[in-house]
Amino acid sequence: MLIAVYIAFITGVVYFLRTIYGYGIEFVVMASAFSILMAMVSYYTGDKVALAVSGAHPVTKSDNPYIVNMVENLAITAGLPQPKVYVIQDPAINAFATGRDPSHASVAVTTGAIERLENEELEGVLAHELSHVGNYDIRVMTIVIIMVGIISILSDWFIRSQFWFGGRGRDRDSRGGNPALMIIGIALLILSPIIAELIKLAVSRKREFLADASGALLTRYPEGLARALEKIGAQNRPMASANNATAHLFFSSPFSAKKLTNLFSTHPPLEERIKRLRAM
Q: Which of 2, 92, 136, 137 has its CA 20 to 30 A from that of 161?
């Protein structure tokens, strides 16, 4: 459904551009084909993009037996295939899972989480991420990364072409930009980021609450996850690789708690998550 809405949105905007600039119908066909191609790319390789953008590198049992064994044990308990394990060199406490399904899943955790969390706390965080794998939240999360990027690129391209060419595709005698196009361009500039945020919110806060609950059920120890969240609230710092496109993947927001964009975060408030865990 998400992919269909994305393709329809891209095609609709391109068709609008065609009517404004006088492009041929082949322009719409080409753009539709491009949107379908990028949707497929996001489905099959979006996890690799997320891992690369986050600076994650793979580890094996010989590299880090502690974290790999913990992920393996939790995967066995959850009845999931063994995901690939990655580590991000960052002092912040954070982690994320990605992939299109449990058979193609990866779990990445920061060195800050490994070093600063107690065994039960880290286990709770990883159980939360494996719950995202088991609940198939990772599929939507991964697809969103590419889609949001393409929508932003399209919006930027429209605004730049409107200023550079001023709508002269249809009116060769035009001297400067068409005021109507200026208004439409500004509207797209405003609406596209909002649409991108709405797509991110497809992974709703309820899915984060569900992953907390599923993770607590997996470890049978909600207090471990609650304590990890408390440490994040008290000690955490922004991640060096924090990125708006991948922020929704992480266990907690990779930005500063004071960052205005957190108002639109898919993550519920830490206090509410801790409260629910301790009520179990």
A: 2
